[in-house]
Design a protein that fits this description.
250 residues, alpha/beta, Undecaprenyl pyrophosphate synthetase, six-stranded parallel sheet, 10 helices, 6 strands, 48% helix
Amino acid sequence: MRKVLYPAYEARMLRRMPGNLPKHIGVMLDGNRRWAKAVGRDTAHGHQAGAANIEPLLGWCDEVGIEVVTLWLLSTDNLNRPARELEPLLEIIADAVDSLADQRRWRLHPVGALDLLPHETAKRLKAAAEATADVDGMTVNIAVAYGGRREIADAVRSLLTEHAALGTPLEMLAQQIDIEHIEEHLYTKGQPDPDLVIRTSGEQRLGGFLLWQSAKSEFYFCEAYWPDFRRVDFLRAIRAYAQRERRFGS
């Protein structure tokens, strides 16, 4: 029955979708491990199931005209997991990114402290970015080894290094520095801030995701674990966003 009803329901939602849609969506792909435990499988199976749901999500975003998507696949804290879990996860992420790059439908942009990753993983992420740099499609930020605090620290470090090379006195820099200067050194520089941040698995916290950029974002928390996140869940999130009166932090 669901196979019959859900497509009709989704089609109706699309027809009635308002025009004020988000340009940039951030997605916290959460719940892979808990999903695996619930279905009686190992953690790697959960991560693999989660990776398999990335391409459908990007297709749904294309469908409604999203311009930028940021996918949080691995935090800096996750790098402290046991090697028996982390190594397969890094391989799954790299394989997923390679697959997305091979399709040449989206422009991939790794964001995060890539220097903290194993050399081969970082190399594959950078290669995916280079291979899709000329693609005229949606920008997809691949957040791996990403942490919001680390990003802000890296931005400030980059700003200081830049001005040190120019010979700018520290006192002068302290007087001149403003929000725009820091934004120019974020991983997402040149991109619009996320209008909507979606987190799956029922957790209702940011956990360090896009701390700077999400100051005025709307948030949508979904109970489904990431591998179970469906097109209808995505459309509900978009509809909920469109129905809100944005106050932009006021």
